[in-house]
Design goal:
heterodimer; A: alpha/beta; 7-stranded mixed beta sheet; 6-stranded mixed beta sheet; 8 helices; globular; B: about 260 residues; mainly alpha; 12 helices
């Protein structure tokens, strides 16, 4: 059974020639709005118990409007939202907090706002106090709190009881990193117990860490609904398209998206990853010796050429990157028509997972000065653990172990 | 309608803590704290009683108390302050709580009830201060004063009904928030609070009869100053108006509630 179903959901903001016309409509006087501005239209999706859904989209795409309609604060213009179970929404932490009151008093108030009775709040008060970890400040006025402490208390109240559906709007960066971990853990715990998550965030890593499905909203409707990686790549493509018109976006055979930019004096002709036997590889075992071969053609004279590459993990976090400037192998002035081949040899001492390589041709030590070509996701490879001891993490740091008694 | 009541019931502790928090936060950093809740109205009442009654030392017909005018003034003020406090707060209620209404799901009908609760509490304190001053002036409480209880409820209901309508309209037409304080001022002077009704010229008396607060204030005078039961035929009309306004207010509120968040 679906926990939440949005059926042909739409929201229009109406403007009238005069607000009195709007008021007249409540009294049964018919009048047509002068203008209808549709923010969202034809939104259809279903969410099942235990799913974790991310909602992404650019600013103004309608994410917050959608969340407000799902939460029930905003009335949809068309369609309906069916909800089975209690919804807790963290659209803004610390809503309704009064700075003059103590943390404890504010907890009573905020929990009351969520519909709990005093008795129910009393039951969970100890837990909230323990989770917030603000110590003796809990009984002092909130105006003396740091903003992080206030967020801690607010998050502790908002998640005091496990809801069937938890809606979170960009609120995951709560307080310091210790508390961020703690709040993530709590959200995951809820998820394990069957809570459905709905998260709006621009943070790719938190979306990919928590969600198993992502909805991409663009132009007021859901344009993509699928696995996180696929949707996020598509989303990034849309963003870079907007940011820079010269950026080329290629869809690769596996559906992922590659972006290129640059002035084009030197271009990457080909690049590939080879194993010890000089055969191209896509699957790499941990610790395997690899060579990254990059063929470059210089199209017009350039004063200097530096070639750099960066290995990124599944979430786009850099794992390792360097360039020929640091490797002391940069080329001086080059004539147009020159062909070059670079071979970078390294051992894949990285953990199991999917990685991508970005390559850049530029001058000096960064691509910020002159950027001939920059290619994201130029190459994707997978690392598998074929012959090493089992381990976790993104680095292969083989230990030896000794035990003495 | 039933949904409104259920929402109110399940959010009763929220209403309770909201009212309490309002008072707590108002006095939280003052050394006298809650005592100000008494001092403020008491000072007001004393000013009326001692200064105004000496300046405007008019004798009221049928009353031999030296401070009759002070009693008269206090009784009227008691009614008016409740009325104007509720209206003024309802007027900006939804605008002030706009962000809350956008971000949290809760029965919005609780908001006017929080106003109602705290205004009633304020008024109760004012009533106690007034009674204390009454005693000092030699006017002991009488059984007739128990009529104040239904009267207070009628004033509150009237003000909530009117306030609800104005508060909702103010979300969409902000001029209302500017106009109403002026209208309230006019209405105040069109209600016999600082002057006795008999100084009004005959041709204006028919006009004042349209003022729904007039029968109420008169009833307050009857109860507190003249110590007689109020005139029910007069109040009956106000009760009828109150019921109509309250019903209309709730209707408007229900119709407007979905669109209110759009406009905030």
């Amino acid at each position: 059974m679906s926990l939440l179903r949005a059926k042909d959901l739409g929201k229009a903001y109406r403007t009238y020639r005069s607000e009195w016309q709007r008021i007249g409509r409540w009294l049964g006087i018919k009048s047509a709005p002068r203008e209808e501005h549709w923010v969202l239209q034809h939104i259809n999706f279903e969410i099942n118990a235990g799913e974790a859904i991310g909602i992404v989209g650019q600013n103004g795409a309608g994410k917050s409007t959608l969340l407000k309609m799902l939460t029930g604060t905003l009335q949809p213009t068309t369609g309906s939202v069916e909800v089975h179970g209690r919804i807790a929404a963290i659209l803004e932490l610390g809503m309704g907090f009064n700075p003059e009151l103590t943390g404890r008093q504010n907890v009573y108030h905020a929990a009351g706002l969520m519909g709990f009775t005093t008795q129910q709040i009393d039951e969970v008060m100890g837990e909230i106090e323990a989770f917030a970890e603000v110590g003796e400040y809990f009984d002092q006025a909130v105006r003396t709190y740091s903003s992080g402490m206030q967020m801690r208390v607010a998050f502790a109240v908002a998640t005091a009881k496990r809801p069937e559906i938890l809606i979170v709007d960009e609120a995951l960066s709560v307080g310091d990193s210790y508390f961020q971990h703690k709040s993530f853990d709590r959200i995951r715990e809820f998820q394990d117990q069957g809570t459905t998550l709905l998260i709006v965030s621009h943070d790719r890593s938190s979306i990919q860490a928590l969600c198993d499905r992502v909805l991409l909203i663009e132009g007021g409707t859901v344009i993509k609904d699928g696995a996180p990686e696929e949707v996020m790549d598509f989303y990034n493509a849309i963003i870079s398209e907007k940011e820079n018109a010269t950026v080329q976006v290629h869809k690769l055979a596996d559906g992922s998206v590659q972006t290129r930019s640059g002035s084009g004096e030197a271009t990457i002709e080909s690049l590939a990853l080879y194993n010890e036997l000089d055969a191209p590889v896509e699957f790499v075992s941990v610790g395997q010796s690899l060579s990254l071969k990059i063929k470059i053609s210089v199209n017009s004279p350039i004063p200097e050429l530096v070639v750099g590459y960066m290995i990124k993990d599944r979430l786009g976090q850099p794992i390792y990157g360097t360039n020929t400037h640091h490797l002391d192998k940069k080329m001086g002035a080059l004539e147009g028509g020159t062909q070059l081949e670079y071979v970078f040899r390294f051992d894949a001492n990285i953990g199991v997972g999917s990685y991508s390589i970005a390559v850049a041709l530029h001058t000096a030590d960064t691509h910020l000065n002159a950027n001939y070509e920059w290619r994201d996701l130029a190459l994707v490879f997978n690392v598998i653990n074929a012959d090493k001891i089992p381990f976790v993490g993104s680095a292969w740091i083989q230990p030896t172990v000794e035990c003495s008694q | 309608m039933f949904g409104l009541l259920r929402g109110l019931y399940s959010y009763r502790s929220f209403i309770g803590t909201s009212i309490r928090n309002e008072f707590v936060s108002r006095f939280s950093r003052s050394s006298l704290g809650g005592l100000w809740m008494i001092i403020n109205p008491l000072a007001n009442v004393l000013i009326y009683a001692l200064i105004l009654s000496n300046v405007l030392a008019a004798k009221l017909p049928g009353i031999e108390n030296k401070y009759a005018y002070a009693l008269y003034l206090m009784a009227g003020t008691l009614a008016w302050s409740l009325f104007s406090e509720i209206i003024n707060r309802c007027l900006t209620l939804f605008i002030e709580n706009g962000n809350l209404m956008k971000k949290m799901r809760f029965p919005r009908i609780t908001l006017p009830f929080i106003v109602l609760g705290s205004a009633l509490l304020n008024n109760l304190l004012l009533l106690l201060s007034v009674l204390a001053v009454f005693i000092c002036l030699g006017q002991w409480p009488t059984w007739e004063m128990l009529w104040a209880i239904p009267l207070i409820l009628i004033v509150a209901a009237l003000a909530v009904g009117l306030g609800l309508i104005l508060g909702v309209l103010n979300v969409f037409v902000r001029d209302i928030g500017q106009v109403i304080p002026i209208v309230l001022q006019i209405l105040f002077w069109f209600t016999p609070i600082v002057y006795p009704i008999n100084i009004i010229p005959e041709d204006l008396k028919s006009l004042i009869a349209w003022n729904p607060m007039y029968p109420i204030v008169t009833a307050y005078h009857d109860v507190f100053v003249y110590n007689v039961a109020p005139d029910f035929s007069q109040i009956g009309i106000t009760v009828l108006i109150t019921c109509l306004l309250l019903g209309f207010g709730l209707y408007i509120f229900r119709r407007a509630a979905p669109e209110m968040v759009d406009a905030l």
